[in-house]
Design brief:
The complex is a heterodimer of chains A (about 800) and B (about 350).
Chain A lengths: L1 E3 H4 L9 H10 L3 E7 L4 E14 L7 E6 L5 E5 L9 E11 L2 E2 L2 E4 L2 E4 L1 E2 L2 H4 L21 H4 L4 E6 L10 H12 L20 E3 L5 E10 L8 H9 L7 H13 L4 E4 L8 E5 L5 E3 L5 E3 L5 E4 L4 E4 L3 E2 L12 E8 L1 H10 L5 H6 L8 H16 L2 E8 L9 E4 H8 L5 H10 L3 E5 L2 E5 L10 H12 L20 H15 L3 E2 L5 E2 L17 E2 L10 E2 L4 H13 L6 E7 L2 E2 L5 E2 L2 E9 L3 H22 L6 E4 L13 E11 L2 E9 L1 H7 L4 E8 H4 L18 E10 L4 H12 L3 E10 L8 E10 L8 H19 L2 E3 L1
Parallel strand pairs in A: 12-15, 26-30
Antiparallel strand pairs in A: 1-11, 2-11, 3-4, 3-6, 4-5, 6-7, 6-10, 8-9, 13-21, 13-22, 14-21, 15-18, 16-17, 18-19, 19-20, 23-25, 24-25, 27-29, 28-29, 30-33, 31-32, 33-37, 34-35, 35-36, 36-37, 38-40, 38-41, 39-40
Helix pairs in contact in A: 5-12, 6-7, 7-10, 11-13, 14-16, 19-20
Chain B lengths: L1 H21 L3 H12 L4 H7 L6 H40 L18 H15 L3 E2 L5 E3 H4 L25 E3 L5 H9 L4 E10 L11 E11 L4 H16 L5 E8 L2 E10 L15 E10 L1 H6 L8 E8 H9 L6 H4 L2 H4 L3
Parallel strand pairs in B: 1-4
Antiparallel strand pairs in B: 2-3, 4-5, 5-9, 6-7, 7-8, 8-9
Helix pairs in contact in B: 1-4, 2-4, 5-8, 5-10
The chains are: A alpha+beta (about 800), B alpha+beta (about 350).
Chain lengths: ~800, ~350
């Protein structure tokens, strides 16, 4: 919203400078986003009266104007032909300045021209370059033009959506009056009988129109509006068109009520019908476009055709034109929902629609028509004749009770009841004192106040939030335990950062069809689709963090950042059976192995497994087991995107809770990721057992333990976990701990053979174990492994 | 005979002294100690002869030998100390290491700036006794809109254009405020929570907008909560996060779910509040807030006549941008490690 300070000063005598005014308006909730100085840049330009006009000898383009600034006439050559004797025009005297241009006496075809007459565009007062700017007839010759056109300051305000009444100069003037405690001069609205022509307007769709005021004025003359009005409109960002159109815009920018003027003679049947459009009905609009309407759209029609899209834009057919003599002025109040819907449907937002959408008060429309009619009479003549005000359900003003205690209870500061009443009255509330209480009626132009808190807000923002003390809520705090999972998050992050993984945050919105199906096996198979995506590749919610992380690895590889290692902790979205969406927390890890091939990938895979195990260790969860993924022969199914020989499921208490493995080369090719990549994804709540356990201390061993190494040579795809199981079974009570030390496969062994080294820790609680005892157990283990796997064992 | 032992002791004294003085390192001294005083050492050899002496002579010679033993021991110790001192003096040359040759720091993983800012926010509010509450990102219209006084066709929905998902009436939450309703419905006052998380709006992507961004919501409900409490909380929060020298400005604002509504800005850290290219007239908007609207309390199952509350909502990404000088919001979701490793 652009507010002209010059215009504002018509209603309120502002003494503060523009920055102070802007600051105070902002504090009160009307944010001033910008203060702009209008570009009016001239010196020495005065008002002159045209006394004579004669052709310039030898020229068909120019003429000589005799002008006076009060004394003797001087001659000025001009190229414009819109002048008439008696006109008041801007005259740049010799020695004057227009922007960077110095004006002197110049000679045209032998005739000296003492300065020049100026067009609006030369003065920066308008866009009109065709003719000399014709000033108000009341302007006094010799008067400095600055006196008529003081340099204006424009405030750009952001008005909150609940205050459409502030989208106008009078509204802002009232705010300024309330803030600075200044009186506000409201424009005089002539009171006329308003319903002496009930036949002029008919409302057929009262659910879309709360009030319609129409007024017929005959015998008007369409002409440009006076310079003062044009200047104000321009300052507020509206292009002047003609006196009638300008008046409707002027009244809107003054009072907030959008208006329209119809050429009465173009209205078939001579009356206005407010109704819903017929499906498929067409309307040629003022912006030159023809729109096809639906039965949802409200229109202002004559007895046959739609003549305007209600509250949004007028129709071309009945628009006011140069030859128009009879007009109907419209000021209506439209149902916000209907306006919103139509404006959206047709992709058309106008000054009018943006006001109506927010809900204007019906109280504005009658005074607006009366004000406009008075301006029409003043500026374009004519006779205001019949008026019609259709207002099916008039508003009933609400009364809100308020007392000083309530104000203090909400704001935390004591505002005396008299001060509160004064603030409300400055804002045009009607206030009745009833002892310590106030009975308050909101002003008719506001619809946003219905409860005491609304009034407290008015008092607070005008009284000043800077006068509210700073306190903290009392010491009673709730005691609940919501920190469990949070701690697990932070613990996981610490471990992961320590393991040289960087944290990523990827988009939840992904492509439904373009996202590779890689995910932990328990993920829902179908993605949750977005009904109204903004982009085709963002039309679903992610079911796994892995595609996003892999994409990030590829992006980094392209940026010459190969070998990135990333993790993400975040929600994934799984469609559940009952038309709902589950949002489990997932943790995913992804590491790029740009070089080194299969062996390097194995090393990275082992590192990932170790990272997972380290986190579990930090959660004080004793063991992390992995199970070789069992790929179905035909189709990888839930293991899509994974390497069939290098993928395992992560187990918690024997149950799969995630996956770890190398990415299938086909998927890497699809992603354009060179080298190899290894990834893991787990259900975080299960993985962290819901938040991490507290470690529990055990007594230290009183007797020394014994360590023994065991190297097992096996052939074929025998899982280490099975070997481990046999060792554990045979090891019995004194075998306390087994760790996997190393794995070898290579030239020193026959093809298909693999050696696994374990470290076994024996311990008894009641004695020092003897070598013989341990050797017996070791032998039992060796025999067991041999029997089960045909393994050769060295200890 | 006595003469013989005494003479040997005397000769040993002279030679031992000379050999100790001329030893040049600790190892040689250690060798001398063994060869002079050891079990098969020279002094021991002489002492063995004492047994053959008359008792009277034996005592004198014994005393003499013991004295020599002490002397030799002392000479070795002194010489040892002298050599050590000399070695220490020479360390600057013998063991010089160039400490301006700087090794790389140990490679560590870097946490995302959104995690770091959230950690700070959580730490500040946990000092004030707040809990963390979470809510679903896929929300229903009741919690996201209606319960917050935003009925269908409310103008506020214009600024919160939402993504709907295929299930009925479900959408991606446009703000973290629905957590307020969920928490009030499931907990009795006193309530003191923050609710961080991702939110989604159908906004075109540019350096300061994206369709996915992050907020942190705050809600306090108790007897007699006032706007002054909100103001104090905002000041404590903003100064804790941005520095105690910052000034805080509270302005009027409008949200459908708070009444009165306010906005808070912190003085710009770059220009100090004079006004510069990075701020709006010296101020940086950080959050919107207000007293919880009585109807919203009711929608959460709380009696507005008994309780009152305040709520606030801040953009986590905006806080992170301000605090860490990030100028483009899109960097947060791009995961370029050159960006991530700056934190």
């Amino acid at each position: 919203m652009l507010i002209s300070l010059n215009w504002l000063k018509e209603y309120v005598d502002i003494t503060a400078d523009a920055p102070t005014l802007a600051e105070r308006l902002t504090l009160a909730g009307n944010e001033v986003e910008r203060i702009a100085q209008q570009e009016v840049d001239f010196d020495g330009v005065v008002v002159a009266e045209v006394k004579s006009l004669r052709p310039l000898p030898g020229s068909t383009k120019n003429q000589i104007a005799g002008v006076t600034t009060g004394g003797a006439a001087v001659e000025v050559v001009t190229g414009a032909w819109n002048l008439a004797v008696g006109d008041r025009v801007p005259y740049a005297t010799p020695g004057s300045r227009l922007g960077d241009r110095r004006i002197e006496t110049k000679t045209f075809l032998g005739v000296p021209s003492a300065g020049m007459l100026c067009s609006a565009i030369e003065l920066g007062l308008g866009e009109d370059a065709a003719g000399i700017m014709i000033l108000d007839p009341g302007a006094t010759p010799g008067q400095d033009l600055h006196a008529l056109y003081p340099r204006d300051t424009i405030l750009e305000l952001e008005i909150k959506s609940n205050r459409p009444d502030l989208l106008c100069h009078l509204g802002i003037a009232r705010e300024v009056g309330a803030i600075f405690n200044l009186s506000v001069r409201e424009p005089k609205i002539p009171k006329t009988r308003s319903s002496d022509a009930p036949d002029l307007v008919r409302i057929d769709a009262p659910d879309g129109c709360r009030r319609f005021v129409g007024r017929l004025i005959t015998g008007i003359t369409v002409a440009p509006s006076p310079p003062w009005m044009q200047a104000r409109l321009r300052a507020a960002g509206v292009r002047p068109i003609s006196n009638i159109v300008d008046i409707t815009n002027y009244v809107m920018l003054e009072s907030g009520q959008p208006m329209h003027a119809f050429d009465y003679r173009r209205l078939t049947g001579g009356r206005i019908v407010v109704r819903r459009a017929r499906d498929g009905e067409e309307l040629a609009c003022l912006d030159g476009k023809t729109r096809r309407l639906t039965a949802h759209d409200m229109v202002v029609a004559d007895t046959e055709r739609a003549q305007g899209l209600a509250g949004i834009i007028g129709g071309a057919e009945s628009a006011v034109q140069a030859a128009t003599t009879d007009i109907v002025l419209e000021a209506a109040t439209w149902e916000p929902r209907s306006i919103r819907r139509t404006a959206r449907m047709h992709g058309l937002r106008t000054e009018a629609s943006s006001r109506f959408e927010k809900g204007l008060s019906p109280a504005l429309s009658l005074p607006a028509v009366e004000r406009a009619a008075a301006l029409v009479a003043e500026l374009s003549g004519g006779t205001a004749t019949r008026a019609s005000d259709v207002y099916p359900v008039p508003l009933t003003p609400a009364t809100i009770e308020l007392d000083a205690d309530r104000i203090e209870r909400v704001l935390g500061v004591r505002v005396e009841i008299a001060d509160a009443a004064s603030i409300l009255e400055r804002l045009r509330f009607i206030v009745k004192r009833a002892g310590a209480r106030l009975q308050v009626q909101p002003p008719a132009f506001r619809l946003d106040c219905s409860i005491p808190e609304d009034l407290v807000e008015e008092i607070g923002r005008v009284h000043g939030y800077d006068r509210v003390p700073s306190t903290l809520p009392g010491a009673r705090t709730p005691v609940r335990d919501l920190f469990e999972r949070r701690d697990a998050d932070e613990t996981a992050r610490e471990v992961l950062a320590g393991r040289e993984l960087d944290e990523a945050v990827t988009s939840s919105l992904v492509s439904a069809d373009g996202t590779p199906p890689i995910a932990m096996p328990s993920a829902a198979q179908a993605v949750v689709k977005v009904k109204n995506p903004m982009a085709e590749n963002r039309d679903a919610l992610r079911r796994s963090l892995l595609p996003g992380l892999l994409e990030a690895l590829a992006l980094n590889a392209r940026q010459d950042q190969g070998g990135a290692r990333l993790f993400e902790l975040g929600s994934v979205f799984w469609k559940s059976a009952v038309n709902a969406v589950d949002e489990p927390q997932a943790l995913a890890l992804a590491a790029h192995v740009p070089a080194g091939g299969a062996d390097a990938a194995v090393a990275e895979l082992r590192s990932l497994q170790a990272t997972l195990a380290t986190m579990r260790d930090r959660f004080a969860i004793p063991a992390t087991a992995f199970k070789q993924a069992d790929f179905p022969s035909e189709n990888p199914g839930v293991f899509a995107g994974f390497h069939p020989g290098r993928t395992g499921e992560v187990l918690d208490d024997g149950e799969p809770i995630g996956i770890v493995g190398e990415v299938h080369p086909q998927l890497l090719a699809q992603l354009g990721l060179p080298g190899r990549a290894v990834v893991a994804e787990v259900l975080f709540d299960r993985f962290s057992a819901g938040g991490g356990r507290t470690p529990q201390a055990r007594p230290l061993a009183r007797f020394p333990g014994v360590r023994r190494d065991l190297t097992v040579l096996i052939r074929g795809k025998i899982a280490a976990s099975e070997v481990l199981q046999v060792i554990r079974q045979q090891g019995g009570y004194t075998l306390r701990d087994i760790s996997m030390v190393s794995e070898y496969q290579g030239p020193q062994l026959e093809a298909g053979a693999r050696s696994l080294s374990f470290r076994l820790h024996y311990q008894a609680d009641d004695r020092t174990l003897t070598n013989e005892e341990v050797a017996a157990v070791q032998q039992r283990i060796i025999d067991g492994l041999n029997a089960r796997f045909g393994a050769e064992v060295r200890s | 005979m006595t003469q013989g032992v005494a003479g040997e002791l005397e000769r040993l004294r002279a030679s031992a002294r000379e050999r100790i003085e001329s030893a040049t390192d600790q190892k040689a001294l250690e060798g001398l100690r063994v060869s002079l005083l050891g079990k098969k050492g020279e002094l021991t050899t002489i002492l063995r002869q004492l047994g053959g002496l008359p008792a009277a002579d034996r005592a004198a010679a014994g005393a003499e030998a013991n004295q020599l033993k002490d002397e030799i021991f002392q000479w070795i110790t002194d010489r040892m100390g002298g050599l050590e001192a000399k070695r220490h003096t020479a360390l600057g040359d013998t063991e010089w290491v160039d400490l301006t040759f700087v090794p790389n720091p140990v490679r560590r993983g870097h946490l995302h700036p959104l995690t770091l800012i959230l950690r700070e926010v959580k730490a500040i509010f946990s000092r004030l006794g707040y809990e963390v509450a979470l809510g679903p990102q896929v929300e229903d219209e009741f919690h996201n809109f209606e319960a917050l006084n935003i009925p269908q066709d409310h103008p506020a929905r214009d600024t919160m254009d939402s993504f709907y998902v295929e299930a009925d009436d479900l959408l991606l939450r446009t703000h973290t405020s629905p957590v307020q309703i969920r928490f009030m419905q499931s907990h009795k006052p006193p309530i003191r929570i923050i609710a961080p998380g991702a939110v989604y709006r159908r906004d075109a992507t540019d350096p300061s907008h994206g369709s996915q961004f992050y907020q942190v919501e705050g809600l306090v409900v108790d007897h007699d909560i006032r706007l002054s409490d909100l103001k104090g909380t905002i000041e404590y929060f903003a100064r804790s996060l941005f520095g105690p020298e910052r000034r805080i400005r509270i302005v009027g604002d409008h949200f459908p779910f708070t009444e009165p509504s306010i906005g808070a800005a912190v003085s710009c850290g770059i220009c100090g509040g004079i006004g510069c290219r990075s701020c709006k007239g010296g101020w940086l908007e950080i959050l919107g807030a207000g007293m919880v609207h009585p109807q919203v309390l009711r929608n959460g199952g709380i009696d507005p006549e008994r309780y009152s509350g305040f709520a606030f909502g801040a953009g986590l990404d905006r806080l992170a941008m301000l605090k860490y000088n990030v100028t483009d919001l899109r960097l947060f979701l791009e995961n370029d490690v050159r960006f991530l490793r700056q934190f």
